[in-house]
Amino acid sequence: MGRYLLQWLGLGALVGILSGSASAIFLILLEDATEIRDAHLWLLALLPLAGFCIGYVYHHYGANSIKGNNLLLEELYQSKQPIPFRMTPLVLFGTIITHLFGGSAGREGTAVQMGGSLADQLTKWIPLDEESRRILLICGVAGGFASVFGTPLAGAIFSLEWMLNRKFKWKSVFPAFWSAWVADWMCEMAWGVGHTPYSIPEIPSHSIENLAWIIPAGLAFGVAAWLFAQVGHMVADVFKLIPYPPLRPVIGGVLVALIVYFSGAFIYIGLGVPRIVEAFETPLPWYDFLAKIGLTGLTLGSGFKGGEVTPLFFTGATLGNALSGWIPLPLALLAGCGFVGVFSGATNTPLACTVMGMELFGNESGVFLAIACLVAYLASGKSSIYSAQKYQGKYFWTS
User: Fold this and answer.
1) N or C: which end of the chain has fewer CB within 10 A?
2) What is the pLDDT of residues 340-353, one digit of tens each?
């Protein structure tokens, strides 16, 4: 036990420092890119050219880094080969370019890939057995997720729950939580990089009636999560018909640029954080969630880089906002439930999403969030935004 604690206190801290610092640098660059884009919206016209640059670099130099989060999952399930260091700079600059020129994408995938890639580099200097390497990868995922969102508890739980293959190891728990805490501290305290605050000012009583209203909302969040995953996979499959990979994001970039320009839908490009904040405060157009699903699926499915989670937050928060016209619960509460509920259904991580909601919105909303996440998780079916994720045992009563 003593050797175990010493080993993972050291390795976990090192992974936390690396992943937290990488996330901090990424968030600083991402904020700068967003400000430049918003001040010069004409950059959207160059999105196809940016897409070609990303596609060309990944095609000729990316190797298996192009698999992204799925590569991490494959290595978690069955160790095959080291995750290349090139994944870190490639996904970092690929995501920044995507956001700078107006693609609709997130940031979680980038942080998780950087965390996992950097963590795995330690195996080049530190001899580890197969099980310890898996724990190290879990630490990288936990650190990346925790630091990019400012949610250390959810980051650790996400890294453990994300595997979803019924091979949970208790030895992974302490390293995951320790790495997540160190990474979050590094990003926020050492680097001084903060995160967007959210709040649910009004929490209704925990009556049976109020809690029951969350069930139909959760069902809607589950369907939206299923739709998000299916659109992303479908678009990716269609673009794979184009034989030369660098041309895929070129065509995708043309389509995104034309759609956004002629519809004036600039609110849906990039992360969309301002719109997410609005969803907690005022009624929005009911179709916001559909627009974000479509543009994100087109952006990422055609080969641009970035994460899916912030677009999932956008989808869920705006859908919850729309449901407030029919469900007699506070608008902010429904937006918050959708924020984590759609994420839960699309990633099959209801526990992590519930904890994340409590970290972001406060413990008072915990019961509502838990019901929304569980119902969405069950209602989303056997689907995931991660094609390599093992979710066949999702419904334990049928396995």
Assistant:
1) N
2) 999 999 999 999 99
